[in-house]
């Protein structure tokens, strides 16, 4: 019920007890570390595990770094962190009274992940949702992200409390949705689109991963996962297709060796992100 005051709640002596004040939406937005400077924060999401969300996050970061931008990756996939491994980044992140310092990859991409804080990278993270959500928030508020043009966030999977916390607290400029060309794709994209809509975050576009396999022996493309259903979905929701990425056997080898930055082409060279 509104109290009728035209001046709003701030400064009102009854603000703590008045019913209308209690109905004001809480501002859950987290603030960056005072020493951080980040121009754009871009989340990478998928509605389903294993479609290549972490890979696309990494490839976007590599593509933008190659264009001369200063880039960072916040690995918010706390229970399944894979970013440090594919970049070959090892060791412990430094922490002092000013904050936590990300570790740089060979190509100069700043990375923060729970794996850079654990004693042993194979230790499982057995934390409940609220703690995981708080760790992600701390990666945003406590880490010193210096002079970044783009901070890419490998978003937590699903639409549970951790994902909600991230959407509510990180000031995302937009999200990139990763899908694969299976029948399920319509449902996956729809979920991601609806969540972004509810959280009032714009969708920059969609990347279809595992789209085809290009056979080097005969030059033909094979649709291993069947025909793509992405076009209908893009039309229905008025979304932009940013890229179709092939199944590339080199990726597995480079990821295992921690040398993803050595990949010749990311396939995301032409992607346009907020400037
Ligand atoms: N285009 C591709 N070609 C070949 N291998 C790929 C491709 N995309 C992803 N992979 C491999 O598939 C596996 C799953 O990819 P990734 O970890 O990026 O998925 P994810 O969606 O982040 O998974 P999760 O939701 O479980 O975190 C990884 O081993 C990755 O190296």
UniProtKB/TrEMBL annotation:
<keyword id="KW-0408">Iron</keyword>
<dbReference type="InterPro" id="IPR033756">
    <property type="entry name" value="YlxH/NBP35"/>
</dbReference>
<comment type="function">
    <text>Binds and transfers iron-sulfur (Fe-S) clusters to target apoproteins. Can hydrolyze ATP.</text>
</comment>
<dbReference type="InterPro" id="IPR027417">
    <property type="entry name" value="P-loop_NTPase"/>
</dbReference>
<keyword id="KW-0378">Hydrolase</keyword>
<protein>
    <recommendedName>
        <fullName>Iron-sulfur cluster carrier protein</fullName>
    </recommendedName>
</protein>
<dbReference type="Pfam" id="PF10609">
    <property type="entry name" value="ParA"/>
</dbReference>
<comment type="similarity">
    <text>Belongs to the Mrp/NBP35 ATP-binding proteins family.</text>
</comment>
<comment type="subunit">
    <text>Homodimer.</text>
</comment>
<keyword id="KW-0547">Nucleotide-binding</keyword>
<keyword id="KW-0479">Metal-binding</keyword>
<feature type="binding site">
    <location>
        <begin position="47"/>
        <end position="54"/>
    </location>
    <ligand>
        <name>ATP</name>
    </ligand>
</feature>
<dbReference type="InterPro" id="IPR044304">
    <property type="entry name" value="NUBPL-like"/>
</dbReference>
<keyword id="KW-0067">ATP-binding</keyword>
<dbReference type="InterPro" id="IPR019591">
    <property type="entry name" value="Mrp/NBP35_ATP-bd"/>
</dbReference>
<dbReference type="GO" id="GO:0005524">
    <property type="term" value="F:ATP binding"/>
</dbReference>
<keyword id="KW-0411">Iron-sulfur</keyword>
């Amino acid at each position: 019920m509104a109290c009728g005051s035209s001046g709003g709640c701030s400064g009102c002596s009854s603000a703590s007890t008045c019913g209308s004040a209690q109905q004001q939406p809480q501002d859950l937005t987290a603030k960056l570390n005072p020493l951080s400077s980040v121009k754009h924060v871009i989340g990478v999401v998928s509605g389903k595990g294993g479609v290549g969300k972490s890979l696309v996050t990494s490839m976007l970061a590599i593509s933008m770094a190659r264009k001369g931008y200063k880039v960072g990756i916040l690995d918010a996939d706390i229970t399944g962190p894979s970013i440090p491994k594919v970049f070959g980044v090892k060791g412990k992140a430094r922490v002092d009274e000013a904050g936590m310092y990300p570790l740089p990859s060979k190509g100069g991409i700043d990375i923060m992940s729970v794996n850079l804080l654990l004693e042993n990278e194979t230790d499982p993270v057995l934390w409940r949702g609220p703690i995981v959500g708080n760790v992600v928030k701390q990666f945003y508020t406590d880490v010193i992200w210096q002079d970044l043009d783009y901070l890419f966030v490998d978003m937590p999977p699903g639409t549970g409390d951790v994902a909600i916390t991230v959407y509510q607290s990180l000031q995302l400029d937009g999200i990139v949705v990763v899908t694969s060309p299976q029948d399920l794709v319509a449902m996956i994209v729809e979920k991601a689109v609806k969540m972004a809509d509810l959280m009032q975050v714009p969708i920059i576009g969609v990347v279809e991963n595992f789209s085809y396999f290009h056979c080097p022996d005969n030059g033909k493309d094979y649709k291993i996962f069947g025909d793509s259903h992405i076009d209908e979905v893009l039309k229905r929701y008025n979304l932009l297709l940013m890229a179709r990425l092939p199944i590339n056997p080199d990726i597995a080898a480079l990821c295992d060796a921690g040398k993803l930055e050595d990949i010749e082409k990311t396939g995301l060279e032409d992607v346009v992100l907020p400037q």
